[in-house]
Write a structure and sequence with these properties.
The complex is a heterodimer of chains A (302) and B (327). Chain A is built from 15 helices and no strands. Chain A has 302 residues and is mostly helical. Chain A is globular. Chain B is an all-alpha fold. The chains are: A mainly alpha (302), B mainly alpha (327). The interface between A and B is large, with 94 and 99 residues.
Chain lengths: 302, 327
C-alpha cells in the first residue's frame, strides 16, 4: 500500500514517457539548441573580433582563448572624445525623450481608458487616424524646419513624442485595472490627478517598464532623424558615429588608428558595435519578464 | 458654476451618466459634463496639442504635392500644378522599379518570416527542458531591440568578403567569397534573412501566447486516443494558430508598402540601389538630397493614401475572419 502510494507520487512528478516521446523531446531540444546557435553565434563572433589582438595568428576566430583577449579596442574607443561625445548625446536624447514620452503617453492614455468620458470616441478617432495615415517624410520635415527645430535635440524627440501603438497598449492596460480602488479614492475626495498618481501609476509598473523600454530603445537606436535634422557633427548620437566607424572610410575621422595603433580596424569596429548595444544588454534582462504581457495587450483590440 | 448647478435637475448618478453619453446641444448640460471631467480633459490637453501639431500639422505641408514648391515663395505662394508630380512619378521608369522592390522585399519578409516564428513558438511550447526554453527565449528576443546600425555591424562581421564568418565557411568549403552587401543578386536575400534573424523571436511571442491559450484537455484527450506528439501538433496546435496567422498576415499586408526603411537605409549602397531602393528610401533621396520636395511629397502622399486603404481593408477582413483586428 505504502509502496503503491509512493509510486503514484513519483509517477505524478515524473510521468513515464514512451520511447517515441523521449525521441520527440530530444528532437525538440536539438531544434532549440540549433535556433539558439543561429542567433548566438553572430553576436559571439562580433564579441570575439572585438577582443582579437592586432596580428593574432589565426585572424578572427569563434574560439579565441580568454588568455588572448585584448581590451585595447575598448580602451581606445573610450579614450576617443568623438565617441564619448556621441555616447553622451545618445544618453541625453534617450533620457529627455523617454521622460517626454512617458509623461505624455500616461497623461493621454489614462483619460482615454475612462469609458464614460464624453467625446471619448471622437478623440479616439482623432488619434487613430494618425496611426493609419501618414502624410510622409517631407511634410514632417518641412513642419520641423518651419518650427525652427533644425539643429535642436527636440527635432528628434517631439515628432515622435507619443507612439499611438504604445498609447493603445497603455490604455488597454489601464482599462483592465479594477475600478473599485479608483472609486474608493474618488469617494475619499481625490481628484483625477491624485488617482492617477497614487493609485494607477503604482499598479502599472509592468506596463510602464515595458513601454519605457520600447521608447528608450527607439531613442537609443535613433539613426535617421539626427541625420535628417542635425547639421552639426558634434550633436550626432552614437548610431550615426557607429555607422561612420563601420564604413571604413569614415574611420580615421573618428578614431585615430594610425600605424602605431595596437588595435586592428576590425576590432575597433566590433568593439564600437558591442559598446552601442551594451546599455540594451544591461537593461534588457531586467525588463524582459514584462514584455510578453505588453506585446499581447497590444494585439488586443478595445 | 453655481448657476449651472442650480439649473440642473436633481443630482442622480444614473441620469448624470446618460447625460454625459448623450449628444446634447444643451450647453448647461455639456458644460456640467465638461466640468465634471475637467481634470481628465486637462490631462488630455498636452497630448491633443501634440497630435494636432506634429501629426496633423504635416497635412498642411502635404499640399505642396499639388504645387510647384519653391521654398522662397512658401507653401501658399507656390503655383498650383494639380496632379503633375503624381503623373511624373507614374510615368517614370523608377516607378515600376521601386514599387517592385518594395513589394518583393515586403512580401518575402512576410512569407519567409512566419514559418520560423511558428516553429520557434512550437518548440518553446513543446520542450521538456524548460530552462533551455527560457534561455532560447531570452536570446531570440534580444535582436529585436538592437538597432539596424548595430545589425549592420553584425552583418559586416558575418558577410564581409575579407574575414566574414559566412565567407570563411564558404571558402573553407571550397567556394568563392561573395560580397553579399554589394552584390545585387544576393542583396535582397540578405535583407530578408537578416530581418528574419532579428525578428524571429519577437514574432514568436504572439504564436506562443496562442498555444498557451489552448485548452490542455484537448491534448490529454488526443493522447488518450493514442495520438503521437507530432499528430497533436498537426491536429490541435497548428489549427489553433490559424487565426493568429491570418491576423498577422492581414495586418502585415496592410503595411505592405513599408519594406523596412531603417534597415535598408543603413544597409544599402550604390551598387545595390537597383534591387533595394524602396518607396521610402527613394522619397528621402529625391526630397532631401536632390531637393525635389514636391515630387517626393507626392510619392509619399501616394504611399500614405494606398497604405490607409490597405490597412482599413485588412482590418475589416481581419475582423470578419478572426473576430479581432488592429483597432
Amino acid at each position: 500500500m505504502l509502496k503503491a502510494l509512493k509510486f503514484r507520487q513519483v509517477s505524478r512528478t515524473r510521468p513515464l514517457k514512451s520511447v517515441a516521446d523521449q525521441v520527440f523531446d530530444r528532437s525538440v531540444g536539438v531544434l532549440l539548441i540549433i535556433i539558439f546557435l543561429i542567433v548566438f553565434i553572430p553576436l559571439w563572433y562580433v564579441l570575439m573580433i572585438s577582443f582579437t589582438p592586432l596580428g593574432y595568428k589565426d585572424g578572427s576566430t569563434l574560439f579565441l582563448p580568454p588568455w588572448n583577449w585584448s581590451f585595447e579596442a575598448y580602451t581606445q574607443l573610450l579614450g576617443e572624445a568623438t565617441f564619448m561625445q556621441a555616447t553622451l548625446n545618445s544618453l541625453f536624447i534617450t533620457l529627455l525623450g523617454l521622460t517626454i514620452n512617458m509623461v505624455l503617453t500616461v497623461l493621454t492614455a489614462y483619460p482615454l481608458a475612462y469609458k464614460k468620458l464624453p467625446a471619448r470616441r471622437i478623440i479616439m478617432t482623432f488619434v487613430l487616424f494618425t496611426y493609419l495615415f501618414n502624410a510622409g517624410l517631407i511634410p514632417t520635415y518641412l513642419l520641423v524646419k518651419n518650427l525652427g527645430l533644425i539643429n535642436n535635440y527636440l527635432a528628434v524627440i517631439l515628432p515622435g513624442a507619443i507612439s499611438v501603438y504604445n498609447l493603445f497598449i497603455m490604455k488597454a492596460f489601464f482599462q483592465n485595472l479594477p475600478e473599485s480602488l479608483e472609486e474608493a479614492a474618488r469617494i475619499d475626495g481625490a481628484n483625477d490627478f491624485q488617482v492617477l498618481w497614487h493609485i494607477i501609476i503604482p499598479l502599472s509598473k509592468p506596463i510602464l517598464l515595458t513601454i519605457g523600454m520600447f521608447y528608450g530603445v527607439t531613442h537609443w537606436n535613433e539613426f535617421f532623424l539626427p541625420l535628417l535634422y542635425f547639421n552639426d557633427k558634434v550633436m550626432m548620437p552614437l548610431p550615426v558615429i557607429l555607422r561612420e566607424i563601420l564604413s571604413s572610410s569614415g574611420m580615421s575621422e573618428y578614431v585615430e588608428s594610425n600605424a602605431a595603433s595596437a588595435v586592428s580596424q576590425e576590432s575597433l569596429k566590433m568593439a564600437a558595435v558591442i559598446l552601442a548595444m551594451l546599455p540594451m544588454l544591461v537593461v534588457y534582462p531586467w525588463i524582459q519578464s514584462h514584455f510578453t504581457k505588453g506585446v499581447l495587450l497590444g494585439g488586443v483590440k478595445e | 458654476m453655481s448657476i449651472l448647478r442650480q439649473s440642473s435637475p436633481v443630482e442622480n448618478p444614473l441620469t448624470d451618466e446618460l447625460r454625459a453619453n448623450s449628444i446634447s446641444l444643451n450647453k448647461n448640460r455639456f458644460g456640467k459634463a465638461f466640468w465634471r471631467y475637467r481634470y481628465l480633459y486637462l490631462m488630455l490637453l498636452p497630448g491633443m496639442i501634440y497630435f494636432l501639431v506634429f501629426r496633423y500639422g504635416p497635412l498642411y505641408f502635404a499640399q505642396i504635392a499639388f504645387k510647384d514648391f519653391k521654398p522662397l515663395a512658401g507653401v501658399e505662394g507656390s503655383p498650383f500644378v494639380g496632379f503633375k508630380y503624381f503623373q511624373d512619378f507614374f510615368n517614370s521608369y523608377y516607378f515600376t522599379q521601386i514599387l517592385t522592390n518594395t513589394l518583393i522585399i515586403s512580401l518575402a519578409k512576410l512569407l519567409f518570416g512566419i514559418p520560423p516564428a511558428i516553429i520557434l513558438a512550437l518548440a518553446l511550447y513543446e520542450t521538456a527542458y524548460k530552462r533551455l526554453g527560457k534561455v532560447v527565449q531570452t536570446v531570440t528576443y534580444l535582436p529585436h531591440f538592437l538597432s539596424w546600425v548595430v545589425m549592420f555591424g553584425v552583418l559586416l562581421a558575418l558577410l564581409s568578403p575579407g574575414d566574414g564568418l559566412v565567407n570563411n565557411v564558404i571558402s573553407a568549403g571550397g567556394g568563392e567569397r561573395v560580397a553579399f552587401l554589394t552584390t545585387p543578386q544576393v542583396f535582397q536575400a540578405v535583407l530578408v534573412s537578416s530581418d528574419i534573424w532579428k525578428e524571429m523571436g519577437w514574432s514568436a511571442i504572439l504564436y506562443l501566447a496562442a498555444l498557451i491559450a489552448i485548452d490542455p484537455t484537448l491534448f490529454e484527450a488526443a493522447a488518450v486516443d493514442g495520438a503521437s506528439r507530432l499528430r497533436r501538433i498537426w491536429h490541435i496546435s497548428l489549427p489553433s494558430l490559424t487565426s493568429v496567422i491570418v491576423l498577422v498576415t492581414l495586418l502585415r499586408l496592410g503595411a505592405i508598402l513599408d519594406a523596412g526603411f531603417n534597415q535598408i537605409f543603413v544597409t544599402y549602397s550604390l551598387p545595390v540601389y537597383s534591387v533595394s531602393d524602396v518607396i521610402d528610401t527613394w522619397v528621402y533621396r529625391q526630397g532631401i538630397i536632390n531637393f525635389q520636395l514636391s515630387l517626393a511629397t507626392a510619392v509619399g502622399l501616394f504611399k500614405g493614401v494606398i497604405g490607409l486603404l490597405l490597412i482599413v481593408v485588412a482590418n475589416r477582413v481581419a475582423h470578419r475572419i478572426t473576430g479581432s483586428g488592429l483597432y
